[in-house]
Every structure is written in structure tokens, then in C-alpha cells.
Design a protein that fits this description.
Largest sheet: 2 strands, antiparallel
Number of strands: 32
Strand content: 25-35%
Radius of gyration: 46 Å
Strand order of the largest sheet: 1-2
Distance between the termini: 158 Å
Number of helices: 0
Length: 296
């Protein structure tokens, strides 16, 4: 009988036909494996391998490939490396597609990056890692590099697919620059029509559209006859017998009572003196009194 690992076969020589014990090639096994007396030697099937003929052919696991791929008689099985995959041991290891990755060896498939993340090869194949975009950036696809938020938009969290737009009355922390991570409302008394322009202070004699609240988008002068000492206070009408500091003009910041001997009937018209024969001995009055006949 042939010893384990060899098989009997006929050989024709000068002495005629004789039976000899032949050695099985690597990648094949005898029909008795570790036992003696083998009569045949067969190559391992496609997708299987054996380093020695006394050991049964072993199936390569998914994520690995034999050294013969689709051919028979493989002697080794090798795991695919990071950034690669193989769905079948008869198929060569393939690099992960753009936008996918595989961080360890011996896998039958690649992984898809989470939204807002990109692979280390970006638009290239064979990525081994996936990284979330940082605050102030976004990416709509894992094969597109993280991009800074455009001026006027922001993103305060990592791993996002888009940036948010600041509304009127709000400004980004980078103003006209890209990559903002916050959006803040203008303080009371300030305004901004665009998030790329810093908040401006309204002058006295005007009011913001939000008055004492933050987030104003515009600043408007008080109409003629009204005044405001602060942009966070609503424009107020002058009391009777008083006039604004701008008279018929807009944007008044104060209101003054008419002096003794004068009256005011309209806050947009300057105080007028009492007519002859009339008097006014108090401030802030709207009409004069007539003198009593016979009195100086």
C-alpha cells in the first residue's frame, strides 16, 4: 500500500508496467487523506485549497481568495486587505468603490459612509476609513470632499449633509467669510438685513422693527412729530405745547415744551409768541390768555 499522501498508479518502463506510489501535488488530496492506500489524487475544486494532500480541501471564506481564483488546485487562501473586498473566494479582491470603505481585512463587502461623512480617498477607490465633516462644513455625498458652508450659512454640528441659512436680523460668526458654525440674532437696538453684514446700531430718533427684541432687520426714523431717544423704544408723540427737535423733519430724538410767552399747537411747528393783548406765564401750553381790560 502507498503511504499517506501518495497514491498508486501504473508506470511503464524498461521492465514493463509496474505500480508505483506517486506524490500528490499541492492543491490536491488523495482519496484516503491521512490514511495509506490511496488510489487517486484529485485537485481541490475552485474556491477550495489544500497545502498538503493528506488534508481535505478547505473552502475559502468570503472576503478571501484562493491563489488560483476560478481555477482548481489552489494551495493557499489569502484574506483581502483593508479597503478591499471579495464576495467569493473565486473572485479577486476588489477595491471598495468611491464613497465606500472597509477598515479591516477579510470582508465580503464594503461599508457605506454615514451621511455628512467622506472617505479618506474622497472620489478615489480603496478607502479604509470614513470621517464626519466638522462643524462649519457639509458633504452631500461620501465621495465629495467636505466643503465649508457658504458665506451667510452655517452648521453647528459635525457630520451634516447641508448648511443652514441665517435669516434677516441674524449674522454668522464669519460674516462675509465661509465656514460659519453659529448664527446669532442682532441685539436689541441693532439690525442687519443680511447675515453676511455685521449688526449696526440704530441712531437715536429711529427704531428697529423689533423694538426691545433682538433680531431686527431694519431701522426706521421716527415720523415728523414723533421722537425716540433710543432705537429700542417706540416713537412717541410730543405732549401738547411741545415741539420735536426736528420740527417737520423725521428722526427726532427729543421733545421740548414751549417757553413762557409762547404756545405750541403742533409738534412739527415751532413755538409761537402770544399775540399783543395776550399772555402765557406757564411753559408747555397750547393757547394764550387774554389780558383783562385796564390791566397792563
Amino acid at each position: 500500500l502507498c503511504v499517506a499522501g501518495r497514491y498508486s498508479t501504473e508506470s511503464t518502463g524498461v521492465n514493463g508496467t509496474e505500480v508505483i506510489c506517486a506524490v500528490c501535488a499541492a492543491g490536491s488530496t488523495t482519496d484516503t487523506l491521512a490514511l495509506a492506500g490511496a488510489s487517486t489524487c484529485e485537485a481541490c475544486a475552485s474556491g477550495q485549497y489544500s497545502m498538503v494532500s493528506t488534508v481535505a480541501c478547505i473552502v475559502c471564506e468570503a472576503g478571501s481568495m484562493t491563489d488560483q481564483l476560478q481555477e482548481t488546485g489552489a494551495t493557499a487562501c489569502t484574506a483581502c486587505g483593508s479597503g478591499q473586498y471579495s464576495a467569493s473566494s473565486t473572485s479577486a479582491c476588489t477595491e471598495c468603490d468611491a464613497g465606500q470603505y472597509q477598515g479591516s481585512a477579510a470582508h465580503s463587502a464594503c461599508l457605506v459612509c454615514d451621511p455628512g461623512s467622506v472617505t479618506d480617498t474622497v472620489a478615489g477607490t480603496g478607502a479604509v476609513s470614513c470621517t464626519a465633516c466638522v462643524s462649519g462644513q457639509s458633504s452631500s455625498s461620501s465621495d465629495e470632499a467636505c466643503a465649508a458652508c457658504e458665506a451667510g450659512s452655517f452648521q453647528d454640528a459635525a457630520g451634516q449633509t447641508s448648511c443652514a441659512v441665517c435669516g434677516g436680523g441674524f449674522v454668522t460668526d464669519t460674516l462675509a467669510e465661509a465656514g460659519a458654525i453659529t448664527c446669532t440674532a442682532c441685539a436689541a437696538g441693532q439690525y442687519s438685513a443680511e447675515s453676511t453684514v455685521g449688526c449696526a446700531v440704530c441712531s437715536a430718533g429711529s427704531t428697529t422693527d423689533t423694538l426691545a427684541l433682538p433680531g431686527a432687520t431694519l431701522c426706521t426714523e421716527c415720523p415728523a412729530g414723533l421722537y425716540s431717544a433710543s432705537s429700542v423704544t417706540v416713537c412717541t408723540a410730543c405732549p401738547a405745547g411741545s415741539v420735536t427737535d426736528t420740527l417737520v423733519g423725521t428722526g427726532a430724538t427729543s421733545c421740548s415744551a414751549c417757553s413762557v410767552g409762547q404756545i405750541g399747537t403742533d409738534s412739527t411747528v415751532d413755538c409761537t409768541a402770544c399775540e399783543v393783548g395776550q399772555y402765557q406765564n406757564s411753559t408747555g401750553q397750547t393757547e394764550c390768555s387774554s389780558c383783562i381790560s385796564g390791566l397792563d
